[in-house]
Model the fold of this input.
Amino acid sequence: MSDLELNPLFARADEVTSFPRHRIPEVGSLPETAYQLIHDEAMLDGNARMNLATFVGTWMDDYADRLYSEAFDKNMIDKDEYPATAEIEDRCWRMIARLWNAPDPDHTLGTSTVGSSEACMLGGLALKRRWQHGRRETGKSTERPNIVLSSAVQVCWEKFCNYFEVEPRYVPVSEEHRVLDGHDLDSYVDENTIGVVVIMGVTYTGMYEPVAEIAEALDEIQSRRGLDIRIHVDAASGGMIAPFLQPDLEWDFRLPRVASINTSGHKYGLVYPGLGWIVWRTREDLPEDLIFRVSYLGGDMPTLALNFSRPGAQVLLQYYLFLQLGMDGYRRVQGATMDVARYLAGEIGKMPDFELWSDDPDIPVFAWRLVGEDARTGGGVRRGRKWTLYDLSDRLRMHGWQVPAYPMPDNLSDMTVQRIVVRNGMSHDLATLFVRDLRTCVHYLDGLDAPLPSSAVGGHGTGFHH
Done:
């Protein structure tokens, strides 16, 4: 159909009854008519509470919604016009700097961003610029910078390397080394290495990469080869989990080699989509020439961002949650979410068809694969299995659940896994219903007389991207 047809129930006298799909209509409509059309179409997006694929928060309370509606118009970049919002942003990243044990939170730098992807770009740029300054001071070339990262990094790091001309050196994950753990790191770094990216909550599997072990490996490399290589911690998820649930784990600024850390306010920070944070260990870790300065109320405000205009409402929502929940509230919320994840992992781990990729979740995220030799293709050989994890994902979607199946990264790309992300709002009751539906789907698939058409020809849709 080329036009959007208006239900006669909503049509008004002398008003158009259809709208072109791909061009602006010549004649407008009443607000309630336009609302109804969009409302009805957006209804097809699905139930956010049953989306177990996304890390992004989809629920906040009524007071947060009220605050959000009062702040729709605030532009974070316009610090002259919105000095109170700018001040709140400053308070928030300083709170986060303390949460991550920065040595001097009052004299470092941080900022909000649109999300973790922008924060990662800024962290990578600071590493590159610091490396460039050091090379120029010693009269060395600044050509061919490289950065070391796991093959399981989120796509934003591929974008960083592409957009800012940095060679990515991917350390492949394997059965023996399921995350970047410092193994063989010596062979990946050299004098052109601007830094190492360490992930607190790998998007494929939810596992932490051991920051302390990697820092120790870099300490040893420096003592032997003289290479001072800093770490950026991509804590998009774990940055708002570890401080509350694993406070004794050393992954943050307690490790001197960690130069910067980012997180997503809109993931386990519990805010609606559109918010990230990055903090540097000290002011010296963020080169001055990356900072732009604006003045407001007679003062000086440093600013850095890849975007210009961006919403300020999410910053206020983050501050609201910090005040409303406090440390104890975040511990309770994140703990409840982790309890649900452990329950689900335990129930799925008991099912004979599945093998968990990690025994105990680091964050409320876990992955599993099919048991047996066929696990490496997601297919069905063992016990005559005639279905794949892609078939299971499709079947679960019929029950309303979105649970992605996808291949692992390079070096394990012939292995298919399935993953669940548990977020605030996924209660034990909903988790019990999911387990019931999962068992129902597996029972149906086990009863197939022949593989489904997509499985029989070895085809499947990705439907999911990292």
In short: Confidence is low (pLDDT under 50) at residues 373-381. Residues 3-45 form one domain. The longest helix spans residues 313-350. The longest strand covers residues 193-199.
